[in-house]
């Protein structure tokens, strides 16, 4: 079911893995482009038609009412509500440390430089529906937005065939502080957020995960609005040595493989006997799981146990793959993780499995996938703020710098830029000369 690879002899799997998330699919792109164009033109009318076509329900009103939210809270167990509230507290505590403040730098008495930090005015968060309806995703998107000071948080999520939203999703939205919730999903929901309709207001930035149609829609509207990232299928990579427990490894690989058939679950180890033990454990633990078929296809297509020559090479492979989730199940994880350069989130030790981060610990679970942790970061408060530079020069300060500024401008062939500086002093000279002539 899961392949075992000696990395010194076979690197083809790595190439296949790194190519799996390419989102340039012509058929998807054409469909998304049509949806975006129709919603932009026909607004609620197009959104209503796509909701009927894709979600199987006819909606007159997309807005989730206060009564619907209260009913959802009433039918959600008290224990789950308490769990979501505790998770929100952990997420808040972690993300408050990310807050940045405006600042000013005084360069002498006549130059002031600074940076203004302001929240984005209106943000749209996309929450998947159907089998992938996760209240934890509501918390992970709405809580940092609220901490950043976003004025209005608009949440969209697909309705079921009865025109309803999963109660725990609405409960989480209430706990996290979403301002308005609309029943809209897919590329058409992204279009509604990006362009605005009669019902759904246009936002300044869109965050949140979704299927390939949602991902491509976000990619298409990027620039018109901001987006957080283009999320691909989920992935986990586990670095393990001879001290690791194969039962824990198998369970953690399965936890990611169950997301979908394109999810990647990979073990990298320098202890070859561990490979057979983990493969055996996978077979045992798969028995009776509800999503067994999905897990098996995921492991068959993108699962692997990679054998390396040493722990250092294991870390090198992890850095090359740059996984979304990286577990370090070694005897000394605090030594090993220091060599990790590329990962969305790192989980240290056998009692820090990936679901701890997904649901409860506090760091954001919206993470860079598809090797993008080489250059990008988890969702954070920074995603919901904007920064503006502030510059003040007095007359004397500009006079001290004018020759340098004009030289650089003229080197670039931008004589208008140079003149913008020169005119401030040439006009003064002319004025003084005219005054002298008048006195004569």
From TrEMBL:
Residues that hold Zn(2+) according to the record: 256, 259, 358, 417
Cofactor(s) the protein requires to work: Zn(2+)
Binding site for NAD(+): 126, 188, 211
Superkingdom assignment: Bacteria
Reaction it catalyzes: L-histidinol + 2 NAD(+) + H2O = L-histidine + 2 NADH + 3 H(+)
Signal peptide: none
Residues binding substrate, per UniProt: 234, 256, 259, 325, 358, 412, 417
Molecular function GO terms recorded: histidinol dehydrogenase activity
Residues annotated as the enzyme's active site: 324-325
Top class in the EC scheme: oxidoreductase
Pfam assignment, any one: Histidinol_dh
Cofactor detail note: Binds 1 zinc ion per subunit.
Stored InterPro entries: Ald_DH/histidinol_DH, Histidinol_DH_CS, Histidinol_DH_monofunct, Hstdl_DH
Pathway(s) served: Amino-acid biosynthesis; L-histidine biosynthesis; L-histidine from 5-phospho-alpha-D-ribose 1-diphosphate: step 9/9
Record EC number: 1.1.1.23
UniProt keyword list: Amino-acid biosynthesis, Histidine biosynthesis, Metal-binding, NAD, Oxidoreductase, Zinc
Similarity annotation: Belongs to the histidinol dehydrogenase family.
Protein name, entry field: Histidinol dehydrogenase
Species this chain originates from: Lutispora saccharofermentans
Gene of this entry: hisD
